[in-house]
Model the fold of this input.
Amino acid sequence: MDLLIGLPDDVFKHSIALYLTVHDVGRLDRACTNRRYRGLLLDKVENITLHSEQQMMNKVAAASVSFVLFTWLGKRHVYLTSMRFIKDFRDWAVDMASVYVDQLKYTTNVVFSDRLIDHVSVELLMKYQPALLSLSFACCCNITDASVMLLSQHWSSLQSLDLDRCDNISDEGIVALSLQCGRLRSLNVAYCSRLTDSRLTDASVVSLSLHCPSLESLNITHFSHVTSFGISSLALRCANLQSLNLSMCRLIDDAGIIAVSHQCRRLYYLNLSLCSMITDMGVSSIAEHCKGLQSIILSNCRNITDYGILSIAQHCPLIQSLDVSMLSDITDSSIMSIAAHCPRLQHLDLSNCFKITNSSIASIAQYCSALLSLYVTNCRRINDDSMSLIAEHCPRLLSLQVKGCDGVTDASVVPIVQQCLHLQSLDLQDCYLITDTSVMLLPSHTTGLQSLDLVGCTRITDECIAAIIQRCTSLKTFNYYNDVLGEEMDESEQE
Done:
């Protein structure tokens, strides 16, 4: 405490305070039982601004703590730049606004995680917060076009908006948003067009391109009515685009992707999963012109072959994440090229790439030592020979999925468990040759293991299952014998 109190005020306020949460400050207050320390602490925290989140809970006890804590903070003019409301925002705004309202004056980022949030909630927030820069309504299904129109008029300087899974949003809301919020840099409207009567079309994308030229990140997952016309317009006017998620936009073809490649040279993330009209031509164009690409998802793009993947290997050496799952035509030649040319690769998904063999995995192990996750579900030509190399060369591995790889046995799983000590997720489903020999090593070697799947591993004994439940204390999800033991794991089972 002497060390903390002795810090110069400018050091405390501009360095230490940046990492303090609201509850950290509360704990400091409770720790200062000495009157001399308490007075000095109050001088330290006065007028600081906390940059961490404060979570508002719906439990009575938590709410009362928040009330007292915010009263304490308010008296000392301590403010929050970021707030997250988990539930019951309306009740909070009505019952405790007189205490909390002053804390909102410097808040620029608000996250809602409550399905009950609606148009009235937006009006209440507007009453107390004049200038938001970032706002999230993810999964708030009661947010409508009217809500979006209202917030866009009030917070015209908004830079980031998350409307993920807000089903009641249509072109009307997005067009109004683009007209009012010209400084928008990030927009997530994934799955907003799942309802048949709230379609999002090219009209939304074109309006965004015309009025939001600073857009850097856009997620329009499941915009099933958007075509290459809208994407070409976006690319033409939003040259600063860096992250683009077009997953399940099934009407987009190579023309739209080629336009993106020519105009958006700063692109580093691209998701084209389930864009079935995309071919090697579009992928090759992206690779040739967006050389800073770090992550690309091509899952279920059935027209992509080795040619497209080879283009990525040749032109995009900074690739860190590659998802080519469900591409049944790709072979070892393209994956071996990725391994040789992309040494920064950390995440690789080859699930259901049936032509992939040990040669690909051996190359990945040899050249990509920074690998963090590897998914090879149903790649039945992969066995212990290559997986043992992963254990030897990729010690930082966090997640491994070898589901359905019936050639994987204890011979490779034992070294993986012994050498990949940071493993958090392991899927051995239907690897029927796995026995207690490898699984019993998990509690003593992978202390951070959170997810384990042993379904179909018929040689695992009940004694082994019981030992895993008892000794893997960090385990959150455990699948075995077609049963699922999830986060509701009984505390007595973990003791």
Observations:
- The longest helix spans residues 60-75.
